[in-house]
Amino acid sequence: MLNGERSIPRPLRWAMIGGGRLSQVGYKHRSGALRDNTAYRLVAGAFDIDAARGREFGVNLGVPAERCYDSYQQLLAQEANREDGVEVVTIATPNGTHYEITRAALNAGLHVICEKPLFFTTAEAREIKALAAEKGLIVGVTYGFSGHPLLMQMRVMIANGDIGEIRMVELQYTHGFNANESADKFEAQKWRVDPKIAGPSFVLGDISTHTFYISQLVMPDMKIASLLCDRQSFIPSRAPLEDNAMVLMHYENGAVGRMWASAVNAGAMDSQSIRVVGSLASLQWSDAAPGELRYEIQGRPNQILHHGMPYLDDSALAEERLGALHTEGLAESWANIYLKFAIAISASQRGDRQTLATLIYPDIDAGLEGVRWIENCVRSADNGATWVNYQ
Amino acid sequence: MLNGERSIPRPLRWAMIGGGRLSQVGYKHRSGALRDNTAYRLVAGAFDIDAARGREFGVNLGVPAERCYDSYQQLLAQEANREDGVEVVTIATPNGTHYEITRAALNAGLHVICEKPLFFTTAEAREIKALAAEKGLIVGVTYGFSGHPLLMQMRVMIANGDIGEIRMVELQYTHGFNANESADKFEAQKWRVDPKIAGPSFVLGDISTHTFYISQLVMPDMKIASLLCDRQSFIPSRAPLEDNAMVLMHYENGAVGRMWASAVNAGAMDSQSIRVVGSLASLQWSDAAPGELRYEIQGRPNQILHHGMPYLDDSALAEERLGALHTEGLAESWANIYLKFAIAISASQRGDRQTLATLIYPDIDAGLEGVRWIENCVRSADNGATWVNYQ
Amino acid sequence: MLNGERSIPRPLRWAMIGGGRLSQVGYKHRSGALRDNTAYRLVAGAFDIDAARGREFGVNLGVPAERCYDSYQQLLAQEANREDGVEVVTIATPNGTHYEITRAALNAGLHVICEKPLFFTTAEAREIKALAAEKGLIVGVTYGFSGHPLLMQMRVMIANGDIGEIRMVELQYTHGFNANESADKFEAQKWRVDPKIAGPSFVLGDISTHTFYISQLVMPDMKIASLLCDRQSFIPSRAPLEDNAMVLMHYENGAVGRMWASAVNAGAMDSQSIRVVGSLASLQWSDAAPGELRYEIQGRPNQILHHGMPYLDDSALAEERLGALHTEGLAESWANIYLKFAIAISASQRGDRQTLATLIYPDIDAGLEGVRWIENCVRSADNGATWVNYQ
Amino acid sequence: MLNGERSIPRPLRWAMIGGGRLSQVGYKHRSGALRDNTAYRLVAGAFDIDAARGREFGVNLGVPAERCYDSYQQLLAQEANREDGVEVVTIATPNGTHYEITRAALNAGLHVICEKPLFFTTAEAREIKALAAEKGLIVGVTYGFSGHPLLMQMRVMIANGDIGEIRMVELQYTHGFNANESADKFEAQKWRVDPKIAGPSFVLGDISTHTFYISQLVMPDMKIASLLCDRQSFIPSRAPLEDNAMVLMHYENGAVGRMWASAVNAGAMDSQSIRVVGSLASLQWSDAAPGELRYEIQGRPNQILHHGMPYLDDSALAEERLGALHTEGLAESWANIYLKFAIAISASQRGDRQTLATLIYPDIDAGLEGVRWIENCVRSADNGATWVNYQ
């Protein structure tokens, strides 16, 4: 059980690019990174495209004014000149900038933590993967829902054969906050439906990548063979970007799957869930009640496993923060993945290959797989919602 | 609110074909028909393929031994000779016999209530529809979940525009009772996976037609333009019949939809649900809690409507039997549809065209539409899970 | 599993006193008694204090007009003269008439099924118990929620020690339908707050006796040693009758308990629940989802048992009607207890002492215990909400 | 909406007494205080009764070794000599030490944040209240569940009359983690059942004070007139301290209430809830799903309000951290109350009387009221579970 004691020798010097006052995700990054005070120190930032607003904001976060920069370029350049310059940078800017900032940061010798979807293309992702490998640097991707301890429990139970052979995978991430066109007017939202900034998709990239990564986390051996994606723009001005998408999948082992991603599921307040159906039992988890895992064995009473309980696997308990009965939420998940990024970065700095080889966290490959997922979905959708081999 | 008072001038003389001691559905038919004592009298039957067992069973139900027949042919022949012969017959036999028995019963001048799926082909259904029209007889189909009062509420609210324009229809009927091959050994189950008796599908016909009819009941104006069905036989011995199917739909108005039907959703105990997403709000109902209807307006608190409450539409309250707070279940739904069959039959007998023109119940057209749904799904699936125009 | 086959040699000739068109419970009685067509035939009635309305109603139920009587006295007198006169009568009239009608019916040689609360005093109940014994007649009490199969499961599990030693019993039956004084104006409600007709209590008698009986059903060995009742009349015109009551209990074995009964729990739609806490585990059941039983073992995943599943005890499965996945409601519970009344009455008629000795159903003792419960609660409340020894 | 920007001019220099490696609550304090990096800096501590273990722990939290003290006395003495000495100290030690440490800290000129139950007696609480007032220092009490935003919503709705006149208050905080005596062997638990260290109660002080404070927070105008408490020690070795308690309350306005506090509610995983029943509607909240508030208007569809939604009151949205759809948990609640402590302390330092007069947080009065609640409950229980006037 985590209690705030250091997991790495000393806190990392950390900066944010983006994530300013109007950002929807900036606070989640800071909550995650700073949760334990022993993993990161926020020492610099280029928080906002409006430089003055960003500087005022950074100062309000306790960052020295002189390390609140006007641009990421300035940040990278000037921090490189400091003895105590930043070691790792978080990129929480709109999608269209992820690639160039990541490349620049890696070239500046910094570890990178980047928002999803990582980039626009798998070609970009492969290039960055090679660059990071060459530089010996970590690239983490903030699949912020993937740090819930019960997902580790799900992974272990599936690996143990507790549900038998996997037959069906049911994925969903839907909400209704964009049911009306007026939602697109808000600064934090409008770029998400602009292909130049958002990339080739809206909801596929913005939300389904979270659930897709969770599916990979809990079933690492399941590979998609082919898929079919049908996407819609119920608000026509969003076209060609979709605000609703339905995907069918065929896995290599004969299992099948579905994904529903939507920003127009009016009134839905429970967002994201995963159900994995096996030949003996099913496991189901939802981020609306992340401390519960349903384990449904055919022909037996349904079970509800609760976070923090001694009957869970050690890997789930290792990520526990509050303990049984004490409701955990999204912030604990973010804190867990940020802590893993720090462990990976520190291991990288210290040449600790053993840790790097075994640590499970959303790394550059997870980011690449998310982009690949989007790419295949868009290819299918643009081909008339037909089956495509997963490339 | 229904309280058992007669809805028709006198009870109908009713017989069952099938539905004997080992039947899974026979009791539901009797519970539905006899609930109020004023709609039907069970006076004859050919309850079982094992004639002796069927006779003993019928006698145990209170049917005179001489009217417990060895076969449906005998029943039709001998009842025709009685002054007090049966007027309406329920067919609760395996799928493969529905067509011939229905045709014979209609030709014998009897009204028919038949299990779903009605027949194997739309050609058969159209032929029977014409025959029933020619004879002036009613054919009802036991979509037994469709009599829940809150479905009428859902229909009215959608018609009123309470959810705006329909965008997405999410349908599901899944369970896990056939997750293991051993389930196929039971007499009440084994025919369901034999194409000669079950017809061209297993779960599509056996369960998805229920939910499909509910979707038509609550959204009578929504027409499917095209669909795609992907079906699997996770227990190989069931092939070509599917134990799992996933369907995507395009409606003529631009809405999209999904159906998941499965008998291998291990451990699932909540079976059937429908969610209709509109531009303003969504409505969601599940047969696991049929007395609740979720009404989720985007940007407003979610609402839960309860059966029997005065704020409901008159059409929902008209079908109420137990009253608010008193939990209703599947038996009330069956009683409601059986009562409507009786009202239709009585109206037919009395030439009451007004009633026949306005009564909403699962009639021959509903049965035909179910067969059409299966036919299109199977055509798509057998064509490699490709899009097909809805024919 | 029940499927409508006869449980007794022939249906009983049955009449109703009360339960007419405006009655809230009349339909539940008829649904329960007539469910299977093999237990009862409704052949006579004195349905309404308005004799003409009652006769019209009875005819609409299919009762011959000449057996729709103006009063219970007339019914008892004239049916006694018939060869095919009634054998058992249901009393569904306001509380204040239960005693005199029961006594008259027993003296007329009829078995009795009576609404709760049975009578006003335990003295009356003891007198009637003696009279019934003398006459060799059955008196059943319609604790209509007590026929849910999972209550038998709960009884067996507690008896088996599955929850360890009982420590705490949490009982609740609350709703909000009388939150406003205007509710008292309805004919079916206004007598309930008139002490002359309702007796010494409103919610204690009207609703808490249901849950109290369930507690006795599932824990037959638990005896109350003392209790304390605090009751309120939030609508002052109801005084001295309470619309809210809170009871604390001490059991003889050292366990403690609580009851909350209320008709002013505004907005509550889930009514009735029981939780029994043992030293190892708890069992919880609610009539809002009567097909689920929560089994919570300390330190283990919580379990949900579902009705109709093979892992249940035979005593629970014996009362199953619809089967797993098919939602059961209050009507099945009523049908189950009415069937048990019929079995008891038939056993009594045939001198089958073995059946009478082992059948578990709400009999005269259960009725007496309900009256005793109210009597003790009212005594405590009227003594200033102090502890009283259970007498 | 909170996003980590500073709410006070500069972070406070903060120390912890207790809350070391084996503590159940230490991490919650640190998570709460350090969440935003702009309210507190953890600069010193006397974390553990085992000084060496405490020092190692403190260093692991990033505290300089020389400011990890052997005892609270040493901490107070040595920090007083530093220019940059601590300004505020959290007391997370067993109950029996709260009074002396609080007094010493106040006398050393430090603000205090203390665990509940604050002290053993109201006399102590009144003395400390006077001392804090004399010194001009803040005493905050960590009712850690009271910072959930929807509790502010509940407070506003009740004040607005949205539920009408309050009639019934239903409070519960139960779990089963002490169902077995073996639980008492753990170091973090065993002192809780030792009257010398825990004080006059176990579950009343340990858990019911949380829910009691929440009731005062949402209904500040409701005053208890009298109460009755019945307490049990189901594990006899815990006597005279109770592991289960049931309380009845009479409020001055005629409303009534109940509390159930238990550590032996075997298998219960949902812990704490409050339901306030008014003449028109009820409001219900549970810490198991703290982002939902049920609003049940009699005669209308039940409503579920969700955290972070624009329809909420500004006071609820002001405490929002993650936004709608993003599940909040206990950590956000702690962060909110720690932030309020910081705002109060800073206001106190700056002489900002306006802020101090209007800020709603668990202050010394809230702590005193908690002790008063326990005192009255214990007095009633020890008097044979009789009614006592609330003193």
From TrEMBL, chains A, B, C, D:
Signal peptide: none
Top-level lineage group: Bacteria
Domain Gfo/Idh/MocA-like oxidoreductase N-terminal: 12-143
Ranges for domain Gfo/Idh/MocA-like oxidoreductase C-terminal: 157-388
Name of the featured protein: Gfo/Idh/MocA family protein
